[in-house]
Amino acid sequence: MNMLFLQELFNNITQRDALLRRRQPENLTPDHGQLVNACHRLLESDGEASSIALASRALAIYQRLSAAEKSSFFARLTADFAADPGPIDAAYLAYLEVRDNQSLQRLFEACEPRRQELFRRLNLASDGTYELVKMREDLLGLLREQPELAPIDDDFAHLFGSWFNRGFLMLKRIDWNTPASILEKIIRYEAVHEIQDWDDLRRRLDARDRRCFAFFHPAIGDEPLIFVEVALHKGLPSRIQPILSGESSGESFGESSGESRHTKKAIDEPEDADTAAFFGISNCQTGLRGISFGNFLIKQVVQELSQELPQLKYFVTLSPVPGFAQWLQEQRDDEQLPSSLHKSLKGLETPGWHQDKALEEQLKAAIRPLAARYLVEEKNRHGLPLNPVARFHLGNGAELHRINWLGDISEKGFKQAAGLMVNYLYVLDDIERNHENYTAKATVACSNEVRDLAKRARKLAKGETTK
Amino acid sequence: MNMLFLQELFNNITQRDALLRRRQPENLTPDHGQLVNACHRLLESDGEASSIALASRALAIYQRLSAAEKSSFFARLTADFAADPGPIDAAYLAYLEVRDNQSLQRLFEACEPRRQELFRRLNLASDGTYELVKMREDLLGLLREQPELAPIDDDFAHLFGSWFNRGFLMLKRIDWNTPASILEKIIRYEAVHEIQDWDDLRRRLDARDRRCFAFFHPAIGDEPLIFVEVALHKGLPSRIQPILSGESSGESFGESSGESRHTKKAIDEPEDADTAAFFGISNCQTGLRGISFGNFLIKQVVQELSQELPQLKYFVTLSPVPGFAQWLQEQRDDEQLPSSLHKSLKGLETPGWHQDKALEEQLKAAIRPLAARYLVEEKNRHGLPLNPVARFHLGNGAELHRINWLGDISEKGFKQAAGLMVNYLYVLDDIERNHENYTAKATVACSNEVRDLAKRARKLAKGETTK
Amino acid sequence: MNMLFLQELFNNITQRDALLRRRQPENLTPDHGQLVNACHRLLESDGEASSIALASRALAIYQRLSAAEKSSFFARLTADFAADPGPIDAAYLAYLEVRDNQSLQRLFEACEPRRQELFRRLNLASDGTYELVKMREDLLGLLREQPELAPIDDDFAHLFGSWFNRGFLMLKRIDWNTPASILEKIIRYEAVHEIQDWDDLRRRLDARDRRCFAFFHPAIGDEPLIFVEVALHKGLPSRIQPILSGESSGESFGESSGESRHTKKAIDEPEDADTAAFFGISNCQTGLRGISFGNFLIKQVVQELSQELPQLKYFVTLSPVPGFAQWLQEQRDDEQLPSSLHKSLKGLETPGWHQDKALEEQLKAAIRPLAARYLVEEKNRHGLPLNPVARFHLGNGAELHRINWLGDISEKGFKQAAGLMVNYLYVLDDIERNHENYTAKATVACSNEVRDLAKRARKLAKGETTK
Amino acid sequence: MNMLFLQELFNNITQRDALLRRRQPENLTPDHGQLVNACHRLLESDGEASSIALASRALAIYQRLSAAEKSSFFARLTADFAADPGPIDAAYLAYLEVRDNQSLQRLFEACEPRRQELFRRLNLASDGTYELVKMREDLLGLLREQPELAPIDDDFAHLFGSWFNRGFLMLKRIDWNTPASILEKIIRYEAVHEIQDWDDLRRRLDARDRRCFAFFHPAIGDEPLIFVEVALHKGLPSRIQPILSGESSGESFGESSGESRHTKKAIDEPEDADTAAFFGISNCQTGLRGISFGNFLIKQVVQELSQELPQLKYFVTLSPVPGFAQWLQEQRDDEQLPSSLHKSLKGLETPGWHQDKALEEQLKAAIRPLAARYLVEEKNRHGLPLNPVARFHLGNGAELHRINWLGDISEKGFKQAAGLMVNYLYVLDDIERNHENYTAKATVACSNEVRDLAKRARKLAKGETTK
User: Given an 8 Å threshold on Cβ–Cβ distance, is C24 in contact with A268?
Assistant: First the structure.
């Protein structure tokens, strides 16, 4: 393919879109009935050119609906835009008789909710794809209260799965040369470690040892779908604060992080790094929930980085452990917890414990093993790890590599995980096998160090002392 | 949206694709069994990253299959990748009981042929979309002989309708600054008036009074889907040869072309034109048959041109009349044809009749009315015009405006349409109405001139003389 | 020309430059002697490929010189890199004899200071042009103290005049889609009305009624040379604060701003504007002082805007009046000032006088005429207007159109111009004539209103009262 | 720098230029007097905005001048646009007195021919740079007949040396994705081995083992300045025909090409090549004669290729030997040539001698040594090699590596060099040294094989037999 040529493809559409997207909506406040009518007319049109105008009008009405009217509209979508029973019954009888492909095809068509064709036609409008993603975001906000709207969500999921097929996604590096209009979205969407302002963003992006990549989709243009932040490092990073504050740092790989030696080595040149550390992955579009991009993103970024910097040896995350603090509290509340352990954990109640060397050491000896147990052995009802971040990376084929004591000493870090962070390591040769073992047998791939910690947790649980 | 940003989105993907697309396939000649196995493995994978590799492998095998093996593969697709009756029956029974959205959704899912999920997963591969389009092209070649493969085509049509939704298409001007790799495809795909070589192409494109636009799709990159060639004119053009030979020309609008006065006025500047003449629309991808782009293309090109050259007043085609010569022959073979008319048409048998003034005049008096009748009154079994080009433009909302005697004096022109060409006029204010009348009532919008010609044809058919 | 092709031309160079520009300089602190040696070697090289390396090395040394060493280096440039008297004398004698072109050419070559060839060769280095611009910036900083360095500046001016010829400049729109790396330079370089931060920048740029354009030079890449900020308006704007705060506003054109009616009309769409108001022009590169871009910039921006928005009727500035407050103070200190006027101006000493309606009216009646006199009649030693902003716009062919009372009520506005701002109007048909009259006869083109104000000033000066 | 941003910089200018360049000139045929007047007015203008219009008008007049009028114009340029003696004399006297930098600067300014300022101002016009390059092309065509015009050429050379400084050049890869408008220029400008048509071009460019690079200058846009064609190879290529016909080929490196074993190894992948063979370097702009680009081009291309394909070991040319056949004939005409050698060369008179094995062997034994002598020992009046291609590559620091018998068996090849071609090898570590030895001492770097051949030539010259 010819990249330059493709680069320019979007011009016409996007320039026009820029204008369209900003135009003020009219001042009228329509009701859902108008929208339902517009949808009927759109479905009755022949799907050709006049449909574009009808689709645009329908979407314009939707945007101006109040929350209550949107809810009513969804109710009507559920009720009036399903498939008709008559044709389904007829198609099923025909199918039952011959059981062949043709009759199956007819049955399939008869069963397709008319919502799907409606959404496909709404997509004819300029910027229609993005509007539909926003529409699903609205819908998801209502689902908890109105579970009966779920079938609409199924239709969205079905279409979006097709439209946002990985074959249509485009990877793009984000840096300080990226347009401000994109960067402000990065600031807004960062979900793992909040970006305060433009200076903060610059610290994270605009250094020779930083990389950031995002997936985009041509039809929703400059809206990122997901992005990942990367720091180049010498050795595996164990703490997030130096990364967020923009200090180039490196630690000797292979050290026992338990020893809390954080020997930093500033790297002047990306060429000196041996490690790419993924320290934040953020999904941007609520309306695309369930359409998985993270896996593809990580693998493609690993490819990109390997090509740019062939000397990189380690691809690793520095990940939060959401839910661990709560789980830990539950353990402490559990009467069966050995008193020795109970005592060890008592220190958590001392404000600023991590600045008290003795207290900190005591807690570390107890908590790291417990964290290993939490991550390796605690499962949800599907038999998979309880921790969602672990599920994500293990499912991708990574290995639970290291538990970093005092990895995140922010307020949020203490609150959600007693200050712990975890490295998940992506070993290229093992990814496939890890992934398969995880999928087939729910096996948690982990390093010896983590395995040993988990063992120690079992001893602690039996009341053995922490050393 | 930000156009510059979008422009660069494709770089990574497309550069990689360039390499991939050219790599030689391995030398092995695999059989369809291997491919079927690869497809099963792909479906059994979890749809995540390892699926990309599986999809690539499967497509690579397909590309190396012999024609016979491809045919066998499609047979297996029909047989082994439909939907299972068991779950369908169960889902139908459940649906029958409650008739609600959830049960409908389950039934819909049960009925979806597994081919669709297979195709979606094959699309994960780099360049997968294009390979699937080529696969359907292969399939279409087999359908006539093997109509039992039709369900596969239904699946393709279903997916492609979604993937090639107009919202995903990008309009791009083609000119002499376009990369050679694209231009050679324009040469290859031109279907209406063959382009001989690069010089011929240059004559058609590289002049201030020419425009060419194509639709592209980001996932199939630099492969055009459809393109249209436009000549800017002073007055409506009646003859194709001056356009193809690159002469800038213009004729006074409103003249009775029956008078065969072709007063040319060279236009030096696009700003002097009042007419944009569409003289060739070519679909490029056989594998996208039935996914309609032409309509959207014409309307968007009209928009583009209106914006660039606000003084343009007429948007008109200069179109061929394929099938007319054959129809005319059938009339002459019909014993009921009045002898007067029969005699008038006798001249067609004289080689080079169009250079014999008297003969030409006589034929013109008879043939133009007959052509009007053919276009306006002859219908196919759906009650729509017999002529496919007429169906296309009338369906788009154009008006059958003028029948041009000796509009195409090439060998092909005489052979397919006795030298006639037709102007279909797109009047912006009438498009919607014309389209609706055509769709609802099969009304053929036509000018008074054409209507009068059709009337005269009726008289001729009754044996009245041609003047 | 083919724009897309050109777009990509820079890739290789610029990507490499990006790396080069950021690389840390070596830690050594060299002295000017090393640099002088490097310059000699560069001049002795044959100007071909090895010269690139020599040039890069010399520039790298320069960048690491201390301020004192730079000063010494310039002294050496003056002393050792002029032209040799011997060859000059010989060439002059030869010229004196024949007085022909050949001998003139030899003399010209003999007289060229070797610095010029040195600078041309330094320019071989990647990013050399930018480094030379920075070098001249350093030099300009020293000139006041060391006027003997002026000849070096002449050489720079000679070369830069050639290199930054208008034919090499490129106009570029700046908006919210511009890369952050450029935008932060806009923030830094804004000289007229300081930009506080990113939010402030966004208010100024990212609205449908704002435009910003900058000139760039390919060899110094993403460094803007000069930029202008524009607000689209309905009517001529009289006050800067609503513009800076991002309020879309408009005032009825033709009103006597003396009446201080500021009827704002928000414009929703650029298409509704009739006026483009230039409210800030900032030169970015100190090292390019004396190379004039502003004139070309304004004319090209007028062209761009006329093309985008053909309905625009007025191109006008909203300009500061630096120096007016000081001049006014000098008047007040002048004993010959009529006591009536002296009394009228007394109010200036009351803090917050502009919020006291009576005081404000009194001051307005006195100050606006005086400002007209200052702008129209006060001249410098070249017979041109004393006010530099007036010189710039009048020299460009604009008309001094309106004096806006309380046009800038910021602290800076009061301090430099008693709150006044001025509209200079660019009437396309008059520009050439105005320009010529100004150049030839120093004529100040001004509106009747301003002329009347100037007349009144003369009366006030004679002690007539202000009403 | 930010490449994407730069990419778009040109849009405005170039789009406008596209229109301007094509507009028909007016029909008037002006005389040189009008142009001289226009030039005077341009010089009298103040160099600001009105100058752009004046410059455009002057260039437009020049373009419409007849050849005779152009000649008269140049005569006037020589006579009327030099520098005035009065100011020169005065400035010299002032300089003589003080001998300081200021007075030197005044003298330098007084000596500058007014033509230089004229050309700088003509350059203000859109596309002015390109027009000036074409103007110099016209001038060069007249110089032989009118040597008195040489001072104008000096002025052009002085300015172009500054404007086309290597720092302003941009390297661009040319391939099948390059716009057709550029490719047709490559076809036109190829000077070494003529390109027949588009198919021929495609054979040379559009293969995975081909590369082509060109230098461009932003101000003359899509006009290439110089380009080089490269074939990737396994081993050093000895024959041009397989390369021109598009056969991928490779020969084992280090073989004695004297043995005429041409063991080809097709390379499927660029990654398999160890050699980049430069087989054609073409200057495109006659008007830039003497501004040297080739050297920079080769070095930058070596850099680019090394980065893309790090496994490349040899950078070598396959170069013609223009003038050798003529020199050989002079030897044969020389009565002092030993009869043995005279006899050996007799075979050249037999048509088709290269197809007669015995004859060919005999000639080869005589001619290759003579070619070595011609290239290594025959010098021009500056003591540099007589052969211009040798001067170019040796001056760049290459080594005369191999003389290829029957390297070019085209008619042109036989006619200019008895079928010989030469490999010049660029050994990165030796370039600097070779270049310096060549510059300082005119040393011809050559391989042992060539040196031995030259020795043998000396023996042959003494009448020793060829074996």
Answer: yes
